[in-house]
Amino acid sequence: MGILSRKATCNTHGQDSSYFLGWEEYEKNPYDEVKNPDGIIQMGLAENQLSFDLTESWLAKNPEAANFEREGQSIFRELALFQDYHGLPSFKNAMADFMSENRGNRVSFDPKKLVLTAGATSANETLMFCLADPGEAFLLPTPYYPGFDRDLKWRTGVEIVPIQCTSANGFRITKSALEEAYKQAQKLNLKVKGVLITNPSNPLGTTTTRTELNRLLDFVSRKNIHLISDEIYSGTVFTSPGFISVMEVLKEKKFENTDVSKRVHIVYSLSKDLGLPGFRVGVIYSNDDIVVAAATKMSSFGLISSQTQYLLSALLSDKNFTKNYLKENQIRLKNRHDKLVSGLEAVGIECLKSNAGLFCWVDMRHLLRSNTFEAEIELWKNIIYDVKLNISPGSSCHCNEPGWFRVCFANMNEETLKVALNRLKMFVDGPSSTTRSQSEHQRLKTLRKMKVSNWVFRLSFQDREPEER
Amino acid sequence: MSLDKNLLSKLAVGDKHGEDSPYFDGWKAYDNNPFHPEHNPQGVIQMGLAENQLCSDLIKDWIKANPHASICTAEGIDGFSDIAVFQDYHGLKQFRQAIAAFMERARGGRVRFEEERVVMSGGATGANETLMFCLADRGDAFLVPTPYYAAFDRDLSWRTGVRIIPVECNSSNNFQVTKQALESAYLNAQETGIKIKGLILANPSNPLGTSLGRETLQTLMDFINDKQIHLVCDEIYAATVFAEPGFISVAEMIQEMDHVNRDLIHIVYSLSKDMGLPGFRVGVVYSYNDAVVTCARRMSSFGLVSSQTQSFLAAMLSDQSFVDNFLKEVSKRVAKRHLIFTEGLKEMGVSCLRSNAGLFVLMDLRQMLRDQTFESEMALWRIIIDKVKINISPGSSFHCSEPGWFRVCFANMDEDTLQTALQRMKSFVLRHRENKKKRKSFQENLKLSFSSKMYDEHVRSPRLLSPHSPLVRT
């Protein structure tokens, strides 16, 4: 009899995947401008470090929020004891308003339909627990955030079936891809409970179009299933065509208060838009009372610290702050994005045209030795060990075409970005493969011989051939 | 309006979260009519909430004196951005170190805790669930001595699918868990094909308020070692121990009992009770099993402690002189409250289970039951809520095998409110005693006269009419 659970001994947590291995390499040899200028530059981390000064200056002007005080009175005891899973009302109100603001106030959110969770990680897992039984499935368009394998599947027993998207049409979700995925699930004897999209998309950095949203709503309506829209990057949209939330489309179609609207759920967080991943602030928004009730009870397993709720309720209630922050943040993101894109263009590397996110979806297909995932991993290893950049290979995001990489641009200062671009330039322009030294050749050969990471075989429902063939 | 329930999970539509139980009526009564010394002196006094409100002044003073501990003050703001982005599930190193040190001091420095084994969770609630996910599969079971913390039903079972097998304890030996009870529960489970993966219990116990003696701990450790099953000790009330035999942690026992397989031992801790900070959601999984540490740490992604909170606590709990003074005060103040309350009850002839820890006592009201049944316990409980206007927790909500025991919390209010509660209890108890005497003599005189006007107060209350009521007979 196994001494631990199956969950403890399997690796559905997905942490053996290359997405995490890159992190490990970075941890061993992290870049530092002064102390370790030859170290690995982290470009695999979708963090927003561009606008802290705005938050810090707000804090400097608002000491009460920091000191557990309200109107000169200490509320420490009240906060210290506050563990009501309904959440601090002022915080929920502020969150609902902030979410509206992020959508240009074209839709409004009812704080009573909000559930607070410890980050989007917890929100996504909780929604799975509420909407699906073990062994049932959700359809996800590829490429998708690698953490979904853990968040949606690990402890819930829910399966993911991919909706294959390709570069042929900019990775847009087509009707046939949806139908194909649904059929695939049926072939695997899996009951499909819903579709989960990330809008704006991670790793693509694109917002979902109105057409796609309509298509998705029609699909889930016909199949009588749920639609989860993970909108955690909604505040990072920095240029047209702008952000359209599924809630807006529901409103446009006059679907509010219909059965379909009760099957649409939103996940939100302050980790990306406000750059506060450490504070663990996640949100589920649902029009279904039972889902709200069940998710609220489940949030007991991951409530937001009352200290943090209080601080953020003050921050987000300041409309001057939020308005200015959202605007300024977008300008800075666009600036960074443009620098990365033009820097890559200068060395003949294209990116998928994007208007959001903290990263670019970079096309390095022309740098592959062959059009295979093995070649992609080889290139990725070169980039880690030779170019000393940690970026995320498309296969870790379940992309079905080799050669795409996600490169983050908002988690470093401008100088570091320049250094990274220089290194890439040297790699691309530098000594061609014919003039590589013998030792480098040998090393490349050894790399190729290295067993392809186990994650390739452990991805669920692979419909791709393992590369070792 | 909600849609077709088939579209949701069984978890979402079922009731295994346990919140539909009648015990929540007590809470509702309080929520609808909460006591306040000035605004609502006739309201319901909350004594069903095991909170520690006795030492918040110490923490407040520390906060005022240490503005650098907050990342939002002028003194601490330089750390803001680093902390705000910090989401590493290993947790801040200083935080882990501070927690390990605090746990050591709460055990009188008799054990060492390694900070690498400190894993965060969403409160002890999250810690207990996480351990179940790590140690057991759906359908497996854990033994739990009764009476036990009501929410274990949700925390251990709800989403994990792990079953709870109660190990019955009774008042004949002050509810101590015995080898026979364990063996018997284990055997029964085996015979019905249930796979027992471990034993989980709270030490100090909720609702008993007692800490385990050395002998009992040895029995438990030998038992789980013999069966090679896990032992999870929820030690969240560690610092509330105020009298003999003092607190003996399973961490100490491991040092003494070399032969026990360490891979089976796991501790749950939290700052919610000892420090009175339930709002900050600080739970800890401390396991001696490396694979469990790794797994629990990965799972902690679902309930990390806010980095703002980690950073604040790292500073406060690294202050050794603060910690030592705090731990001393907790114990002292809990002892004082406990004494006031138990003495107050004793004066009215109500006894409690002898206890040396916790934020509550287990009150013995068996004498006040109409008969020794859980129906009578519920009936008495409803009177206490509705008439005496005190929310307390009936033993059945803790799966107690004997009716008549009630858990009453004493650390979540100020002393005046406690005295008010005692007054109300006193009036109720004396009235009840009088009525009982009158009822007895009334019943003896029943054949002689129908016109006796000495109705039992209980009888007058329509909700409590029973076939035995003289009113019905007439």
TrEMBL record, chain A:
Is Disulfide bond tagged as a keyword? no
- Stored Gene3D superfamilies: Aspartate Aminotransferase, domain 1, Type I PLP-dependent aspartate aminotransferase-like (Major domain)
Q: Which cofactor does it need?
A: pyridoxal 5'-phosphate
What superkingdom does the record give?
Eukaryota
Q: Does the keyword Iron apply?
A: no
Q: In which pathway does it act?
A: Alkene biosynthesis; ethylene biosynthesis via S-adenosyl-L-methionine; ethylene from S-adenosyl-L-methionine: step 1/2
Swiss-Prot/TrEMBL GO biological process terms: ethylene biosynthetic process; fruit ripening
Q: Which InterPro entries match?
A: Aminotransferase_I/II_large (IPR004839), Ethylene_sulfur-biosynth (IPR050478), NHTrfase_class1_PyrdxlP-BS (IPR004838), PyrdxlP-dep_Trfase (IPR015424), PyrdxlP-dep_Trfase_major (IPR015421), PyrdxlP-dep_Trfase_small (IPR015422)
Q: Which residue range or ranges hold the Aminotransferase class I/classII large domain?
A: 41-424
The alphabetical list of record keywords is: Ethylene biosynthesis, Fruit ripening, Lyase, Pyridoxal phosphate, S-adenosyl-L-methionine
- One family from Pfam that matches here is Aminotran_1_2
Under SUPFAM superfamilies, the record lists: PLP-dependent transferases
One annotated GO molecular function = pyridoxal phosphate binding
EC number(s) on record?
A: 4.4.1.14
Catalytic activity reads:
S-adenosyl-L-methionine = 1-aminocyclopropane-1-carboxylate + S-methyl-5'-thioadenosine + H(+)
For this chain, the family text in UniProt reads: Belongs to the class-I pyridoxal-phosphate-dependent aminotransferase family.
Q: What does this protein do?
A: 1-aminocyclopropane-1-carboxylate synthase (ACS) enzymes catalyze the conversion of S-adenosyl-L-methionine (SAM) into 1-aminocyclopropane-1-carboxylate (ACC), a direct precursor of ethylene.
Q: What is this protein called?
A: 1-aminocyclopropane-1-carboxylate synthase
Instruction: List the source organism.
Output: Raphanus sativus (Radish)
From TrEMBL, chain B:
Give coiled-coil spans as residue ranges. Answer: none
UniProt signal peptide: none
Where does the Aminotransferase class I/classII large domain start and stop, copy by copy?
Answer: 45-424
An example molecular function term from Gene Ontology annotations = pyridoxal phosphate binding
- InterPro entries, from UniProt? Aminotransferase_I/II_large (IPR004839), Ethylene_sulfur-biosynth (IPR050478), NHTrfase_class1_PyrdxlP-BS (IPR004838), PyrdxlP-dep_Trfase (IPR015424), PyrdxlP-dep_Trfase_major (IPR015421), PyrdxlP-dep_Trfase_small (IPR015422)
Which keywords, in A-to-Z order, does the entry hold?
Answer: Pyridoxal phosphate
Q: Which Pfam families match?
A: Aminotran_1_2
Q: Does the keyword Protein transport apply?
A: no
The family note in this entry says:
Belongs to the class-I pyridoxal-phosphate-dependent aminotransferase family.
Record-linked PANTHER family:
1-AMINOCYCLOPROPANE-1-CARBOXYLATE SYNTHASE-LIKE PROTEIN 1 (PTHR43795:SF74), BIFUNCTIONAL ASPARTATE AMINOTRANSFERASE AND GLUTAMATE/ASPARTATE-PREPHENATE AMINOTRANSFERASE-RELATED (PTHR43795)
- What is the protein name stated in its UniProt record? 1-aminocyclopropane-1-carboxylate synthase-like protein 1
Q: Which organism is it from?
A: Raphanus sativus (Radish)
At the highest ranks, the source species' classification is:
Eukaryota, Viridiplantae, Streptophyta, Embryophyta, Tracheophyta
